[in-house]
Amino acid sequence: MIFLPKREKTKRPPSNPLYGMALLFTVLLGLYALRLHYLQIIEYQRYTTMSKDNRLQPRSLRAVRGEIRASDGTLLVTNRNAVELVYKGGEIKQLERIARLAGFTLPIEQPKDGEYEIVVKKDVPESNIPALEEWLAGQQEVLELRYRVQRTYPSGLAGNLLGYMEPANADDLELKDANGNPLYDTEDLVPKAGLEAGLETLLHGQHGEKLEEVDSKGRVVVGRDRVVREAARGKTITLSLIPKLQRAAEKAIEEAKDEINAKNRQHGVALISKARGAIVALNPKTGQILALAVGPKYDPNWFSSRPRDKKAGEALLDKYLPMWNRAVKIFEPGSTFKLVTNSALLEGGAGNPYFQCMSTYYLGRAAFRNWNRYRNMGSMNAQLAIANSCNTWYFQSAVRFGTRRFAEMLAKRAREFGFGEPTGIELIGETGGLVPSPTQMEADGRRKWYPGNSLNYAIGQGDMRATPLQIARMLATIVNDGKRPELTLVKAVDGKIQPPKPMVQLSGTHWSTLKQGMEITVTRGTAKEILRDFPIRTAGKTGTAENPKGPNQDHAWYMGYGPVADPNLVVVAFFENGVEGSGIALPAVRKVMAAYWNIPLTKK
User: Fold this and answer.
1) Could you list the residue range(s) of the whole structural domain that residue 276 is in?
2) 203 in a domain, yes or no?
3) What CATH number does residue 368 fall under?
4) Is the Cβ–Cβ distance between 343 and 510 less than 8 Å?
5) Number of domains the chain is built from
6) Cα separation of 295 and 160, whole Å?
7) Residues 346, 297 share a domain
């Protein structure tokens, strides 16, 4: 038997617990190194961005809104620095003195959970700001005077025309610019009416951006911001508006109250406390608006001021509707529309016949009356019918031509003059108006067209509706021998004169007949008592539009132009419930004309 030799046992080194710990730490350090590599190399860009976002917060640099000036440079709309007092929490030294200077009451409200600051005073009195800055020295972490830009209207003119701005609402905050960026933020005022809204793309400017460094509590570190993109200021708009003419038009509307009340007393109608109306003055050669006054007027400063005056706010909602821009709203045009009727008849081949201007015209058993209900005013042609505003001449012309055919022709001609659609002026909320026709009315299912509708249509009554701006453009078209101007309020943008808009030439050859009728209106027609002795030779047309509200509530119109030889001024005045055009609207137009040509007016 063979026996193998016994193998000696291998001696193990003595066990050491540090070896296990070393291995454990080696693994942990390896994992830590891998994690550092992942964070610092692979995820470097993402965490760098997050770090900067935690430390640098983007802030919008608000663009300064553009100014609006009148034709002579008068400042109509601008911006001013308004100051807010912001409380960030903590103890305030000399609190009572600061409260008196800033104009807020104690106790002071503490910021709520989630708020870093609150505004304790929205419009600090400007005279007290230097003293406040001294008392707040060293307390900037608790109280801060923060400056904001406030829209202001220093001239007191044309409030209804300029419009107003209000703090951004939820819908405004959803609006985007061309690049998809928010157009407004919670600190912005947003235009809501008038030229402020109509010229928004020019006035708004382009906002910029800066990065502000904030601490762990979200407070801005002063002096550590960086501008990323500069803000671009909005453009300065120069209007064609003439301040003295605008002032005269606004005053003429206010003064009409007494004249309207005198008529109301005669007719037993309730007196008014404010005249409601509009006056438009323009240059017929360019279409530029020289004055656009609305009554009652309002002060747009109320909307951007903080705090707002409660009583002034309530006055904006009274029954006279001061915020309703009557220059761009529709009304029955009355006898001013007779010029369109004359144009349609003359150009449509009806000729220029003579008819008796009787007090009443009968169509079947229906009586259609002249404004003079007591006598026959004699034989008249188109010119004399214009001058004397003879309703029955127009009734007979419509019947002779064929009432339905006449109404269709009149609707077509009215649209050529620009009725039925907005003029395109730079205003928000302009109404297009109504131009009825038998075919359209019946096709729309509104009602059947009767011959009597055509007679009312001929004198600007019934379903016809127009704005004072449309009436002014119609008159300018006639003055220009059929060249219809495009209306505008903008004269220059950032000092660059804007070229006149192209005119539209209407067909027709009888423009002189229409103008002759308006000249006779002043020399021996319905306007002779007011304008016959006026130093500048003018022409025009009175208008009284019946109002469905009842008798003695008619609307008053007058449209005029001059000088007759070379017209450079068209003026239209409208007064809601003004009773009659010759007694109310005509004197208002004369006041505006006198202001334009520097003619002193005596009470006589």
Assistant:
1) 243-318+327-596
2) yes
3) 3.40.710.10
4) yes
5) 2
6) 8
7) yes
Query: Closest by alpha carbon to 488, among 473, 467, 471?
Result: 473
In the beta sheet, which residues pair with residue 145?
A: 85
Q: Is the pLDDT of residue 59 over 90?
A: no
- Residue entry with tokens 């002043």: 522
> What is the spatial distance between Cα 359 and Cα 316, in angstroms, rounded to a whole number?
44
Mean pLDDT for 132-150 is 79
* Residue pair 304/165 in contact by the 8 Å Cβ criterion: yes
The answer to whether residue 16 sits within a structural domain is: no
Tell me: the pLDDT tens digits for 566-595? 999 999 999 998 877 688 999 999 999 999
Which pTM value belongs to this model? 0.83
What is the percent of the chain where pLDDT is above 70?
88
Give the position of tokens 């002249």: 370
How far is the first Cα of the chain from the last one, in angstroms, to the nearest whole number? 162
Tell me whether residue 67 is in a domain.
Answer: yes
Closest of 482, 584, 573 to residue 256, by C-alpha: 584
Query: Are the C-beta atoms of 71 and 147 separated by less than 8 Å?
Result: no
369: how many CB neighbours lie within 10 A of its CB? 13
pLDDT of residue 347: 97
Among 491, 492, 350, smallest CA distance to 410 is for 350
The pLDDT of residue 215 is 62
Instruction: Tell me the pLDDT tens digit for each residue of 315-337.
Output: 677 888 888 899 999 999 999 99
| Residue 278 in tokens | 């509009």
> Kindly report the CA angle at 373 between 369 and 374, in degrees rounded to 5?
145
Contacts of 9 (CB under 8 A, 6+ apart): none
Answer yes or no: are the C-beta atoms of 253 and 501 closer than 8 Å. no
Mean pLDDT of the chain: 87
Length of the chain in terms of residues written = 604
Query: Would you state the structure tokens that stand for residue 233, as one six-digit string?
Result: 């200021």
pLDDT(82) > 90: no
Q: Which residues on neighbouring strands pair with residue 292, listed in sequence order?
A: 280
* 458-500 tens-digit pLDDT: 999 999 999 999 999 999 999 999 999 999 999 999 999 999 8
- Phi/psi of residue 191, each to 5°? -70, 140
How would you classify the pairing of strands 68-69 and 237-239?
A: parallel
